[in-house]
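Hi R.,

As promised on Friday, here is the backbone we talked about, encoded as structure tokens. Could you run it through your design pipeline when you get a chance and send me back a sequence?
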């Protein structure tokens, strides 16, 4: 009997230690180790390559896709019970997409705070107008409608780096999606790091504090040398 009680006590202790040892966050760095963030461990990490193809419009077998893969690092995380990259533009659960772009010479010459705002989705009035005109010319109904700007903040960064954080709504289909977009340009002006968080507006309102923790963890790291 004593041995049984001792065995049960040992098993409880092991299970307790195992539970305590579960990590609270997943810590992420890009391939060069220059950009850092963390997400709750409950998120599932996904292959973001399909997102890159969708955003760029490149054919997976094209030279453009090959060159883009050399310059771009990305990852995605989904808290849905059925995780999918399709949740980038619509989900009842939080979705995180992060990417780091090594800029071309042409992109370096054109980069600005507004370009940072528009790096993934059309945010500024100029880009929203261009997006609608393109949709009209292609005879395609626009996916994004009824834009609402919630917050637009220029970030104070060290060492000459620049950044913006923009929160906004878009109607996609029948739902209102809230996006929280942070874009950082490194001090050399050669690399842009972007994080896009999103879920339906009702979801975002309930879990704004969680989104804030994730977005505030998104930082540029200074490497030695």
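Update: got your reply. Pasting your designed sequence below so it's all in one thread:
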């Amino acid at each position: 009997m004593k041995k049984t009680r001792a065995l049960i006590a040992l098993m409880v202790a092991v299970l307790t230690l195992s539970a305590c040892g579960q990590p609270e966050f997943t810590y992420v760095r890009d391939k060069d180790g220059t950009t850092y963030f963390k997400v709750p461990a409950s998120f599932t990490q996904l292959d973001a390559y399909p997102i890159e193809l969708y955003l760029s419009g490149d054919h997976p077998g094209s030279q453009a896709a090959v060159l883009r893969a050399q310059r771009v690092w990305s990852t995605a995380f989904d808290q849905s019970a059925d995780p999918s990259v399709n949740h980038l533009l619509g989900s009842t659960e939080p979705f995180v997409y992060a990417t780091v772009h090594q800029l071309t010479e042409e992109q370096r010459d054109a980069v600005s705070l507004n370009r940072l705002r528009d790096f993934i989705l059309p945010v500024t009035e100029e880009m929203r107008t261009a997006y609608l005109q393109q949709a009209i010319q292609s005879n395609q109904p626009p996916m994004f409608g009824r834009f609402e700007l919630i917050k637009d903040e220029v970030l104070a960064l060290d060492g000459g780096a620049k950044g913006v954080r923009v929160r906004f709504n878009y109607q996609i289909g029948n739902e209102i999606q809230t996006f929280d977009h942070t874009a950082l340009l490194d001090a050399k002006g050669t690399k842009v790091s972007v994080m896009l968080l999103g879920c339906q507006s009702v979801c975002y309102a309930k879990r704004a504090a969680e989104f804030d923790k994730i977005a505030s963890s998104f930082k540029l790291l200074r490497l030695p040398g």
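One thing I noticed while checking it: The radius of gyration is 21 Å.

Thanks again,
M.
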